[in-house]
Amino acid sequence: MARSPQPINAFPVFMRVAGRVVVVVGEGDEALAKARLMAQTSAALRIVAAQPSPGLAAWAIEAGVEILRVAYEPSLIEGAALAFAASGDEAFDRRIADDARRLGVPVNAVDRPDCCDFFTPALVNRAPVVVAVGTEGAGPVLAQMIRARIDQMLSPALGPLASLAATIRESVERLLPKGAARRVFWADFFAGAPARAMEVGHADEARAAAAELLARRQAVAGHVALVGAGPGAEDLITLRAQRLLLQADVIVHDALVPEAVVALGRRDAERIAVGKRKGCHSKTQSEINELLVSLARDGRQVVRLKSGDPLVFGRAGEEMQALRDAGISFEIVPGVTAALAAAADFELPLTLRGVSSSLVFTTGHDLRGEALPDWARLAISGATVAVYMGRSVAADVAGRLVEAGLSPDTAVAVVENASLPHRRLLHGTLADLPSLAGRDDLRGPVMSIIGDAVAGADFRRSAPLAAGVGPMPVAARSPEGVGA
Ligand code: SAH
User: Fold this and answer.
1) SS3 state of residue 352
2) Which of 38, 344, 351, 414 has the least CB density, counted as fewest CB within 10 Å?
3) Sequence ranges of the domains in the chain
4) Is CATH 1.10.3720.10 the classification given to domain 21-120?
5) For residue range 393-434, what is the model confidence (pLDDT) as tens digits?
């Protein structure tokens, strides 16, 4: 579900400590813990402890770290990259923290968050790859649990593999153009033969496999994926969609796809919003078709991100035709269509044994002519009808269905912003449906579901549809044109 994250109070950065002095002041367990942490780095560790505990002293001998057996004084932290106040004594730690601040040295006072300029994360160390987990002090145990899970996920060979990557990075950048070609190379490097060789400890083989991979480099052809983004919640997207988003050079998205979903793409991917919301068509369909073709011809990996499922009222037919005509490779990734998300929000069975055994996806925009479309006949014979873009034509839909013989008492469920935290659920009957067109309070996309199966939904969290403006006569036709 889309949640707006809280602001971060302690921003994670990776600080260069190689060769710089890092001071730990303290004699006991607190000092030992911080010294251990910093001993994983290439910093020059300075432990200040006039009378180190036996534990600290023994560790220092084993780790080859020298302890300065002198009384603390501020000059000992001057110029340090980082300082730790780890004496275990509150007043003393505060004094060290004050000194550090005065000297411009970032300080961490153990267990005294208010005195800390920085916090130490829980670390997964596969140097040069390091994962740092922080909770701003809210849950050290939680941080350790997360650390343990990530630790299991990452092979011990990751460190050497990443080091190898660093040594060949320059050649790769020289030989492969920026963009898809390089990304494909690195994906193969980190998941293919070099990774497998490193996994079993064969660093030379890994290097040879990387060289071979580089020699085999090929120009990468452009490709377009028409991807369903789902109804809006960023965790209702498929794993395949997520993977393609991470590989895309360009993301071409509709206005209905929320920022949180587009943001699943790489940060450096180009994003092109092509509008397509009622009243703000920023590009015509043929402009979009041409855009997709020209991006792919430039060798780009394109994700065309559409709300819901791309093949349901998504104009994918035209885009696929344009890509086929241009000889561009493409694929379709299905998504959760709005009707399914709305039904889920309502706990509404779209098919119900003995009541409804078919399901219609329609827009209602085909109701203007004299002839009754086939789907209306299906509704009368018991199908559940999901109406997309149906707000402005709500009166037409209701009027024609009643004219055709559907009872005005037939149940209707309406969901605005299905799947999103600010969704709204409304319920009523076909006789109430026309009121939808006049409801200015509904700003988001709206899905209406009509049929006897709707009666099986959970109405405890929904408001009456007619309550807003009162029911309009069913025969009244909406004056509005085509739109959502
Ligand atoms: N391809 C999309 C539909 C695009 S048409 C899909 O498969 O869902 C746009 C219409 O879809 C909107 O007018 C609205 O009727 C419906 N819709 C899309 N997202 C919705 C949502 N989160 N809640 C309710 N309706 C939605």
Assistant:
1) strand
2) 351
3) 21-120, 158-215, 223-333, 339-464
4) no
5) 899 889 888 988 899 999 999 999 999 999 999 999 999 999
Q: What is the distance between the alpha carbons of residues 95 and 100, in angstroms, rounded to a whole number?
A: 9
Token pair for 430:
């076909």
The rounded distance, in Å, linking the Cα atoms of 373 and 284 is 28
Which one of 99, 249, 276, 306 is the catalytic residue? Answer: 276
Dihedral pair phi/psi, residue 131, rounded to 5°: -110, 125
Token code pair at residue 425: 């659920």
Residue 336 token pair: 């959760």
Beta-bridged to residue 360, according to DSSP, are: 385
Contacts of 152 by beta carbon, 8 Å cutoff, 6+ apart: none
Give the domain 223-333 fold: Cobalt-precorrin-4 Transmethylase; domain 1 (3.40.1010)
DSSP 115: G
Do 408 and 401 touch, CB atoms closer than 8 A? no
Counting residues of the chain whose pLDDT is more than 70, the rounded percentage is 92
At 122, list the tokens: 């829980």
Whole-model pTM above 0.90? no
Residue 83: pLDDT band by 50, 70, 90 thresholds? very high
How many angstroms is it from 226 CA to the middle of ligand 1?
A: 16
254 is annotated as an active-site residue: yes
Q: Which of 333, 374, 357, 388 is nearest to 451 (CA)?
A: 357
User: Which of these is catalytic: 93, 99, 188, 254?
Assistant: 254
Report how far residue 385's alpha carbon sits from residue 335's, in angstroms, rounded to the nearest whole number. Answer: 19
SS3 225: strand
User: Which residue bears the tokens 């920022």?
Assistant: 259
Active site residue 276: yes
CATH fold for the domain made of 339-464: 3.30.950
For residue 423, the ligand 1 atom closest to its alpha carbon is: 23
Q: What is the dihedral of CA 213, 219, 224, 229, to 10 degrees?
A: 40
Q: For a substitution probing ligand 1, which of 313, 425, 436 has the most ligand atoms within 8 Å of its CB?
A: 313
Calculate how far, in angstroms, residue 309's C-alpha sits from the geometric centre of ligand 1.
9
